C-alpha cells in the first residue's frame, strides 16, 4: 500500500530499468519481453505506466495529492476492502463515510489528469464508480469466480446437501 509520495517514487523506480530505476533486466525471464522473444527488447522497451495503490488506507487518502504529483504515477487503484477496514468499517465498503472517501478520491485523481481505478464485484457499486469517473473497474476476482463455478458444479451432484454459504467478504 502506497501511503506517501516517497513510497510512490520507489514504486515508480521499481518499474523502470536502470539507469532510471531499479527493475531487474533479466528479460529472458520476463513476460514483458515474451520470455526473450521480442527482438531488441532492452533497446526498444519504453518505461511502463505505474498504477499506485494509494487509496487503501486513510494515510494514502490524506497524501493523495502529493502522490499524484509524482512523475510516473499515471493512475491510482483504490482498494475498498482495505480502505473500509482501515476506516473502522471492515467488510462494509458501502458505508456512507467510505463511499464519500472513495468518491472524493476518484474526483481528485481525475482532476489531476490521472486514471482512477477500483475493484468492486458488486454490480451497482461498480456502475456507480464508472459513473463517478473511474476509468478502470475490476468487477470480479478470478479465485472467487472459480470457487463459485466449482460450488455450482458440486451442488449438481450433491442435491441432498445444502450448498455451503460463503463468508460475507467484500468480493
TrEMBL record:
Q: Does the keyword Metal-binding apply?
A: yes
GO terms for cellular component: cytoplasm
Q: What EC number is given for this enzyme? A: 4.1.2.-
Q: Name one GO molecular function term.
A: metal ion binding
Keywords, comma-separated and alphabetical: Lyase, Metal-binding
Matching Pfam families: HpcH_HpaI
Return the InterPro entries for the record.
Answer: Aldolase/citrate-lyase_domain (IPR005000), HpcH-HpaI_aldolase (IPR050251), Pyrv/PenolPyrv_kinase-like_dom (IPR015813), Pyrv_kinase-like_dom_sf (IPR040442)
- Residue ranges of domain HpcH/HpaI aldolase/citrate lyase in the record: 1-148
Q: Which family does it belong to?
A: Belongs to the HpcH/HpaI aldolase family.
The name on file for this protein is 4-hydroxy-2-oxo-heptane-1,7-dioate aldolase
Amino acid at each position: 500500500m502506497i501511503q506517501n509520495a516517497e513510497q510512490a517514487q520507489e514504486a515508480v523506480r521499481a518499474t523502470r530499468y536502470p539507469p532510471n530505476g531499479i527493475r531487474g533486466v533479466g528479460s529472458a525471464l520476463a513476460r514483458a519481453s515474451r520470455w526473450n522473444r521480442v527482438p531488441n527488447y532492452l533497446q526498444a522497451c519504453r518505461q511502463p505506466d505505474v498504477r499506485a495503490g494509494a487509496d487503501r488506507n486513510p494515510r494514502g487518502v490524506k497524501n493523495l495529492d502529493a502522490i499524484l504529483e509524482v512523475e510516473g504515477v499515471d493512475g491510482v487503484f483504490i482498494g475498498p476492502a482495505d480502505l473500509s477496514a482501515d476506516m473502522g468499517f471492515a467488510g462494509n465498503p458501502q458505508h456512507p463515510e467510505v463511499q464519500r472517501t472513495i468518491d472524493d478520491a476518484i474526483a481528485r485523481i481525475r482532476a489531476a489528469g490521472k486514471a482512477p481505478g477500483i475493484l468492486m464485484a458488486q454490480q451497482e457499486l461498480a456502475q456507480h464508480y464508472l459513473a463517478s469517473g473511474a476509468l478502470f473497474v475490476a468487477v470480479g476476482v478470478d479465485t472467487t469466480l472459480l470457487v463459485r463455478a466449482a460450488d455450482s458444479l458440486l451442488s449438481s451432484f450433491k442435491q441432498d446437501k445444502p450448498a455451503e454459504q460463503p463468508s460475507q467478504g467484500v468480493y
